[in-house]
Design brief:
14 helices; single chain; alpha+beta
Length: 551
Amino acid sequence: MQKSISCSQKVAWKIAIIYILSTVVYIFITDSILSKLNILDTLWISIGKAVFFTFVTGFLLYKLILGNMKSLEDREQQLNTLIEHMPDFVNFKDGEGNWIKANKFAIQLFNLENIQYKGKRDSELENFTNVSREKLISCENSDEKVWKDGKLIRYEEVIPVSNEDYKIFDTIKVPIFHTNGQRKGLIVIGRDITDKKKIEQRLKDNEQLYRSLVENNTDAIINLDLNFNILSANEATEKITGYCKEELIKKTFSDLVDKKDQTKVTENFINASKGKTSRTEMSGIHKKGHSILLGIKSEPLRINEKLVGIFTVVRDITAAKEKEELIRKSEKLSVVGELACAVAHEVRNPLTALKGFVQLLQYKNINNEDKHYYDIMLTEIERINLIVSEFMMLSRPQAITYQNKNVVSLLVDVITLLETIAIMKNIEVTREFESNISLVKCEGNQIKQVFINIFKNAIEAVPTNGKIHIKVKKWKNSRICISFSDNGNGIPNDLIGRLGEPFYTTKEKGTGLGLMVCYKIIEEHGGRINIKSEMNQGTTVDIIFPISIDE
């Protein structure tokens, strides 16, 4: 509009300049001609010259004004066509806020077809449109603000089109003033951005849903780049690894993996980077230094068909593996129990007969040079009898009466019993008992059997002139820990996990049943056995009990 005003001013100046120049030229030329003809002062000549000039200049002015009007009409028609076919609503108001003109889109939006809307304010259209009175008054208030501020404003406006539906417009209001500063009019333009805003809202909802799924997931969810650097991680990752998010994003995934599984994990990620879903299990390293078993699922991460990273889901399977191992041991124990039932009855009776006859033969040939053979046979029969007795313990449910006992007293009895064997091997046995150790609800004879087994194993593992240290101390969470530490040859790490399995032993003539019985007894007492060992350094066996509830 400002451009049209500027064009009109230029045309006016053009007409004025042409009129002045043509007048000067006409007077100069006609006066020169008449002067030469000596008829300059004739009245009728002057009148004729003026009339001729009037007609000519009037015709020229008419042509110029007509051309300019035609140009303005063409421009106005083009502008009206443009406004009518715009996908935005356009509304022109006068200085009082009355509607002057609105395009087709605006009329349809406000349901003003066949309504005489011109000359009415927004609030006066209440009876003709579905838009609420509150909204119409809000439009009037924003008009007033634009005029008051004297500058263009832009804001998002929600206009209801039915009881359940609405449209969102990106609205621009432009104030127009007279040269004296008085209000002249207002142009209102609004672009429908409903679909855009709904898509943005859906994206926000999806992003919130994604974040909720990721952050509340019990599995670690980690985004990696193609160099396996950590870009993001959820809270579960912090719990599983011990590192906070700020620490994680400074690491590569390899920093969380045990050295022995580095190749396996690298192959897993390489397969994922080739577009394949890849799964594996590995040993991870917790921030505190201990090992954790992890299951990994890796997916390629693509954006617009371009591979940009790797999406990795990590699950702590340490407890699950321990349960699997417990089930495996329980199954073996069940098999051993069934085997014990069958073997015990079949072996016990003939074994007793064999032992009796060997003793009878030994008695009859007391001075015989084959005496040592009888001793060997009796020793081996005793060994078989011991194995059968351990079988029977595994196979028969025991009716146990638990009582509050002082484990230190039970331990001292066992040490007194076996210390002589240690002295014969020149093994130094030291003790370290904390004071005020609480009572433990247990079956005393079974606990003594556990102590005897563990102590004997330590004596057998330690070479001559070795050392065994026995310690009793209070443990966290209301527990008591009894430790047997020796400086023997130690046990390889890959074998420690199998200790306690039936028929698995590190001793040349062992059966593995003794330690298995120990595990079973301690578990039935609500405790656990932990074995730590280093090659050529020694072994420590911790027996952990819960204290008596009475305590």
